[in-house]
């Protein structure tokens, strides 16, 4: 995922109306990778992964083996809503401590 973000530099797509499809692609796979890794790593790092999944706004009922897989655990076409309150409160830095 790090390589995808570095190579694609999705921030450069945000202002280009012709690149919105690519921006959606990169954003989708970044979100899905973080969601799946957050779910898989819960047994090993429960506190940190709870915070990751909270920021991603993943419902509690989708934080299990049944929710693992690209596109599982949320309706196709629905908007992903991050929990910006956790990000703006500075809790994002708790993820890397």
From TrEMBL:
- Which InterPro entries did the record assign? Met-tRNA_synth_2, tRNAsynth_Ia_anticodon-bd
Please name the GO terms that the record assigns under molecular function: ATP binding; methionine-tRNA ligase activity
A GO biological process of this protein is:
methionyl-tRNA aminoacylation
Which positions are tagged coiled coil?
A: none
Cross-referenced PANTHER family, in alphabetical order? Answer: METHIONINE--TRNA LIGASE, MITOCHONDRIAL, METHIONYL-TRNA SYNTHETASE
Q: What is this protein called?
A: Methionyl/Valyl/Leucyl/Isoleucyl-tRNA synthetase anticodon-binding domain-containing protein
Q: Which classification does the entry list for the species?
A: Eukaryota, Fungi, Fungi incertae sedis, Zoopagomycota, Entomophthoromycotina
